[in-house]
Q: What sequence folds into this?
């Protein structure tokens, strides 16, 4: 019997038992659905995390005080002097920009509205380093930084919360830590997550930060440094150069370990990637178990079907069906059942992802579920394999029935 | 023996065939040494009391079951030498089987039931036309899309005959084909078989309990307790 005839017969036989066929594949539907749903959300989350990380720029290096892997007593603070030393083009040809950051929490008030949020004390090229863009106004200038000007750039969400709007804010005044600051710009929305939301931040010159918001015992100390390399290829060179400059400005002898730590976006990205790949393996495990359960369900119903149709099998053999024909017939049925279940499962999983995505979007976390063609193909192929694997034994049993005995079966 | 002239070698040649069924510890002998030759174009009726082994013999002739001992040549082919798949081809090409209870597949219509043997053969060209022609020849050209439960018993048996004929087999085997039918439709089915034998020269072996039916055949074989009674013994 030809394969397309087997397919036609399988469709006829499965649709003769619609309810049973549907209930049989429910295990596969739920298994594949759950996997596709969670996978689509996972890929959506991964895309948004990676998007956020990459939006800062992949050629950015973070420098923190202290050393996480080696014991360093009394590490030197990072200072604006360090930032100045790093700005030396001849010693550090691969470094493009440096932005020291002094961050802190403070109250921000506009009229009667007031809120607590994080204030970022930065320099003029912070916007370039981190890829911040403005929806109105402009970022503050180098002279604002040298003059300790009380100017501020607001994140859009912060602006919205304080003033109820995101436009026509340039020139207005907000109070930070009870000092008046003139608004010079509003940034474009960047999105965020539950841990950090740049859209709620306010950016002021680092000098104004030191003076008005966060007084330091070491006057020019900063929280961390952002270093922008010339391009993503020169990151390693830039890190090497920054390391030797910082070691000499911190007067470390060659025996002493670094008293600062550097990471870059690529490291962070690879951590994010390894987390998502662990997640994927975990999901694959769940998928495997649910498909196993679904497959056993299919095997069970195929065995029932073989028993029910013993006379039919006997008749087909009497009419000239070979073992292969009978086996093909039942294998086609089980494979079709489970691929059918897999396809419904894909639809079901897609729906699941959309619903969860919509709920997440409503509660302020933008999460766009993504279904890749790969995961759909994989789910379909996997269902096919499950159908063939678990249909094999019932089909073999059908094929090996003796014609007379099968015909005599009541 | 004028039938064994040069041209006709037996299409069915059974020699000393035995069949034992095993029931737990005991062996039940169903056939105890059958010798039977049937020639092309013959119509043979097999009679005998219930349990005498008629169906068992038919199943052997139809290659549905294998004997315990003895030889069976079908069209000069030694059947016991054949493997499973070769037997399937023999059943498909050389044998048409008609059962007492019709054995049509209930899900599919008459036409599709008749196409089944074609689907299991190598030559699937003109499948529809051939099946339609077979249904026409049993007088059911206007019922091709009826499901079995939309047909009378006699009509169902005629569909079964069309199905048995569609691959143009060497022999037609019918195990009590009129057993489930009233006398009128039984007569119709018998007329059909007689006609096939006389007009198309189809070799037919049929089992029946009805002496009137058997009388229409050219030859009657009496089975008794797994053995063939000779005509002398029978009379
Ligand atoms: N599968 C089987 N297992 C055990 N014994 C069997 C089996 N099939 C048939 N027999 C026995 O073999 C003998 C012949 O059976 P068979 O069916 O050939 O009789 P029959 O002549 O066709 O009878 P009927 O006219 O009632 O159809 C009987 O004694 C029966 O009990
Ligand atoms: Mg019988």
A:
């Amino acid at each position: 019997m030809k394969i397309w005839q087997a397919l036609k017969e399988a469709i006829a036989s499965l649709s003769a038992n619609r309810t049973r066929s549907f209930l049989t594949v429910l295990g596969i539907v739920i298994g594949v659905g759950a996997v596709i749903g969670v996978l689509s959300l996972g890929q959506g989350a991964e895309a948004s995390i990676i998007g956020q990380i990459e939006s800062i720029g992949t050629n950015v290096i973070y420098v923190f005080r202290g050393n996480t892997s080696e014991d360093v007593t009394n590490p030197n603070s990072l200072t604006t002097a360090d930032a100045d030393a790093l700005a030396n083009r001849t010693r550090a040809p691969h470094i493009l920009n440096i932005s020291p950051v002094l961050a802190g929490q403070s109250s921000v008030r506009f009229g009667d509205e007031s809120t607590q949020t994080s204030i970022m004390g930065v320099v003029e090229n912070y916007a370039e380093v981190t890829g911040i863009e403005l929806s109105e106004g402009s970022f503050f200038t180098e002279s604002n930084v040298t003059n300790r000007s009380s100017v501020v750039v607001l994140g859009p969400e912060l602006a919205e919360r304080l003033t109820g709007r995101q436009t026509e804010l340039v020139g207005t005044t907000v109070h930070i830590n009870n000092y008046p600051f003139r608004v010079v710009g509003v940034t474009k929305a960047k999105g965020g997550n539950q841990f950090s939301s740049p859209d709620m931040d306010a950016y002021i010159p680092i000098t104004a930060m030191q003076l008005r918001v966060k007084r330091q015992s070491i006057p020019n100390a900063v929280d961390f440094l952002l270093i922008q390399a010339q391009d993503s290829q020169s990151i390693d060179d830039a890190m090497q150069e920054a390391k030797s400059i910082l070691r000499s400005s911190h007067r470390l002898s060659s025996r002493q370990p670094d008293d600062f730590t550097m990471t870059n976006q690529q490291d962070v990205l690879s951590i994010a990637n390894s987390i998502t790949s662990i997640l994927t393996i975990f999901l694959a495990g769940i998928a495997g178990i649910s498909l196993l359960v679904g497959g056993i369900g299919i095997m069970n119903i195929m065995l029932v079907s073989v028993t029910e149709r013993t006379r039919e099998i006997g008749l087909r053999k009497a009419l000239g069906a070979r073992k292969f024909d009978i086996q093909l017939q039942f294998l086609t049925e089980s494979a079709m059942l489970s691929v059918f279940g897999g396809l419904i499962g894909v639809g079901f999983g897609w729906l699941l992802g959309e619903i969860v995505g919509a709920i997440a979007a409503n509660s302020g976390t933008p999460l766009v579920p993504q279904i890749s063609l790969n995961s759909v193909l994989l789910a379909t192929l996997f269902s096919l394999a499950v159908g063939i694997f678990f249909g094999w034994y019932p089909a073999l049993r059908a094929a090996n029935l003796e014609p007379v005995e099968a015909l005599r079966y009541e | 023996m004028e039938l064994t002239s040069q041209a006709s070698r037996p299409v069915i040649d059974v020699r000393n065939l035995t069949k034992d069924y095993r029931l737990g510890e005991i062996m039940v002998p169903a056939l105890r040494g059958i010798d039977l030759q049937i020639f092309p174009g013959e119509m043979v009726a097999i009679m005998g009391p219930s349990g005498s082994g008629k169906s068992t013999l038919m199943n052997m002739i139809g290659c549905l079951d294998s004997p315990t001992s003895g030889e069976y040549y079908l069209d000069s082919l030694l059947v016991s030498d054949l493997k499973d798949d070769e037997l399937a081809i023999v059943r498909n090409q050389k044998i048409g089987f008609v059962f007492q209870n019709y054995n049509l597949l209930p899900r599919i219509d008459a036409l599709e039931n008749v196409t089944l043997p074609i689907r299991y053969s190598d030559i699937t060209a003109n499948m529809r036309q051939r099946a339609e022609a077979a249904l026409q020849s049993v007088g059911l050209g206007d019922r091709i899309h009826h499901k079995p439960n939309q047909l009378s018993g006699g009509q169902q048996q005629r569909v079964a005959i069309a199905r048995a004929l569609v691959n143009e087999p060497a022999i037609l085997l019918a195990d009590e084909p009129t057993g489930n039918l009233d006398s009128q439709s039984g007569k119709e089915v018998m007329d059909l078989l007689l006609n096939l034998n006389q007009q198309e020269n189809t070799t037919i072996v049929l089992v029946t309990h009805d002496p009137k039916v058997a009388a229409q055949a050219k030859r009657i074989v009496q089975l008794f307790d797994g053995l063939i009674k000779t005509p002398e013994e029978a009379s």
Notes: The mean pLDDT of chain A is 87. Residues 265-308 of chain A form the longest helix (44 residues).
